[in-house]
């Protein structure tokens, strides 16, 4: 557990006002985001059968919460880590066409998460996925999509300012594109987290690209599951967050793997045993559409736009008592 207390923190809005602002941000953003990216809202599962291979593997070390049910006693059911794989299957199942897509409210439990101001065991995000052509699996497609998402977030800043001018946290006017290798080349002696802080403090907002493959040093910038994002065509949207003097990740996204990318990445991750799973077989047999997709943190976005010091101010979760007490002593009201 790690907690940062900002100096002279003022929450601006009380708990009831904050709750009203959360509702406004979530409802307004998803409508505008869906419209800009041509996405339709779908219902999505909170849990999937382990045998399908649909659950997000994250960094490969986190264990999903799982259980069995009375009518399927021999099937292990897992609460999702995210819906990265499920969405791609859903696009095929529901007959989405080229440049059509979906978004959904994703709720997950990540019990192995290290708790701090940004991280909770409860994850709530907009998961989204969109069909693209094979010839659109390019950096240009990725960057254009990132700019659209940034535009919607910036527009939300103005919407929130209109309703809550005393509380809005002002954002930079542009997003910059940087690769993980460029950061290692520039700051070889810094940790990946320190590099993210340094570049976002310098530029305000960055899309940090190409996460997954080892860098020239032989080390990875960060872990990525090998079977949904193409590690050469992915990245994170990061904002410099002045209240906590740190980079804040708002979105992880990317163009999804094709057969060649998945085979190479599974080999790199020593996870080729997954090739027998139904999801992976669909990619091998080229039965799924080419897609781009990602997740946008709902509580993170509320935290960013309202200048909150702790994600627990904008979501209800479970926290250690000492963290709750220390936050309360500094006017940080955990829900």
Automatic annotation (TrEMBL):
Keyword hit for Iron: no
Pathway membership, UniProt: Amino-acid biosynthesis; L-asparagine biosynthesis; L-asparagine from L-aspartate (ammonia route): step 1/1
Gene3D superfamilies per the UniProt record, alphabetical: Bira Bifunctional Protein, Domain 2
GO molecular function per UniProt: aspartate-ammonia ligase activity; ATP binding; catalytic activity, acting on a protein; transferase activity
Stretch forming the signal peptide: none
Source organism superkingdom: Bacteria
Transmembrane segments: none
Reaction(s) the record says it catalyses: L-aspartate + NH4(+) + ATP = L-asparagine + AMP + diphosphate + H(+)
Gene Ontology biological process: L-asparagine biosynthetic process
Class of the enzyme per the UniProt entry, highest EC level: ligase
Subcellular location: Cytoplasm
Record carries keyword Ribosomal protein: no
Residue span, Aminoacyl-transfer RNA synthetases class-II family profile domain: 23-320
Protein name (Swiss-Prot/TrEMBL): Aspartate--ammonia ligase
Organism: Schleiferilactobacillus shenzhenensis LY-73
Native organism taxonomy: Bacteria, Bacillati, Bacillota, Bacilli, Lactobacillales
């Amino acid at each position: 557990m790690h907690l940062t207390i900002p100096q002279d923190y003022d929450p601006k809005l009380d708990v009831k006002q904050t709750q009203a602002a959360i509702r406004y941000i979530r409802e307004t953003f998803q409508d505008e985001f869906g419209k800009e990216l041509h996405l339709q809202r779908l219902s999505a599962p909170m849990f999937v059968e382990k045998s399908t291979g649909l659950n997000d593997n994250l960094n490969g070390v986190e264990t999903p919460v799982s259980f069995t049910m009375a009518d399927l006693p021999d099937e292990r059911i897992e609460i999702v880590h995210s819906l990265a794989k499920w969405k791609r299957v859903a696009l095929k199942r529901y007959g989405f066409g080229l440049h059509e897509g979906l978004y959904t409210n994703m709720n997950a439990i990540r019990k192995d998460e290290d708790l701090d101001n940004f991280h909770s065991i409860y994850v709530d995000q907009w998961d989204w996925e969109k069909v693209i052509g094979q010839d659109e699996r390019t950096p240009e497609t990725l960057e254009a999509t990132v700019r659209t998402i940034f535009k919607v977030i910036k527009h939300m800043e103005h919407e929130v300012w209109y309703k809550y001018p005393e509380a809005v946290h002002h954002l930079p006017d542009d997003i910059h594109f940087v690769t993980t290798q460029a950061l290692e080349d520039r700051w070889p002696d810094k940790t990946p987290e320190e590099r993210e802080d340094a570049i976002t403090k310098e530029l305000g907002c960055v899309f940090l690209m190409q996460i997954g493959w080892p860098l020239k040093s032989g080390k990875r910038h960060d872990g990525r599951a090998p079977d949904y994002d193409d590690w050469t065509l992915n990245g994170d949207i990061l904002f410099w967050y002045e209240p906590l003097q740190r980079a804040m990740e708002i979105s992880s996204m990317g163009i999804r793997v094709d057969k060649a990318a998945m085979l190479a990445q599974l080999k790199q991750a020593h996870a080729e045993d997954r090739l027998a799973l139904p999801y992976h077989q669909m990619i091998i047999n080229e039965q799924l559409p080419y897609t781009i997709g990602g997740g946008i943190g709902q509580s993170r976005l509320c935290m960013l736009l309202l200048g909150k010091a702790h994600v627990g101010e904008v979501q209800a979760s479970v926290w250690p008592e000492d963290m709750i007490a220390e936050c309360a002593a500094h006017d940080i009201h955990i829900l």
